[in-house]
Amino acid sequence: MQAYWTLVRREIGSHFLSWSGYIVVAGTMFLIGLSFVILIASLGDEPAHRPLTELFCGSYPFWLVLLLAPPVITMRSFALEKSTGTFETLMTTPVQDSAVVLAKFTGAMVVYVCLWLPLLPCLWLVRRFSHDPLLLDYGAVGSSYLGIVLLGMVFVSMGCLASAFTRSQTVAAMLTFSAGTAMLLVSFLSLAYSGEASTRGLWLAQVGLIEQMQDFASGIIDTRPLVLYVTLTAFFLFFTKRVVESRRWK
Asked: If we measure between CA atoms, which residue out of 105, 112, 106 comes closest to residue 66?
């Protein structure tokens, strides 16, 4: 465990001691702030009929952060180590492959969660100056963060797998972004077939990220997406470990 926590601290430090980490933080804060400016401008003086968290999680900047942040965070995980030659040095140390994979995943998740912390003061400010107690439900805020973390686990684990495949950070980021975009496009299909009782409609409803995130944002916690996200995360991390182990097969 000591080696695991050492690697986690090393992974977090590599983000916050580099200029790229602060660019990601600044970009995320800009998009979150932009989302709230658009929301406030669209509401005007009219009362909101849905919780603020539901309105925010349905905005374009929210999904843009979800799609862009994980590739930028995870592209360094293995690709940078391979391109600089430190990967072989790391793997010759007395630490298990699973500990390396989990440490890089944990470090990336810590950075990812930190990116969403500015959302809390934004929600509080809107609640403070709107004078509408129904606009912000604290239970919905908690479930929204749960949905953001669960979706982040899927995208970050997918990014770790993409980074393990290549030496190029750009290729790793593009692979992760493309896979995340594909999952989002499938979600649009689920919206189109949401009223269909066929097998296709029922299957798409199980993988509809947009509808599931809207449920989390409105305070509904369903076990089906929870199981789906945890299973997908375990699936991607398992294959990341297999890719890391593959160096011994050569």
From this structure: 112
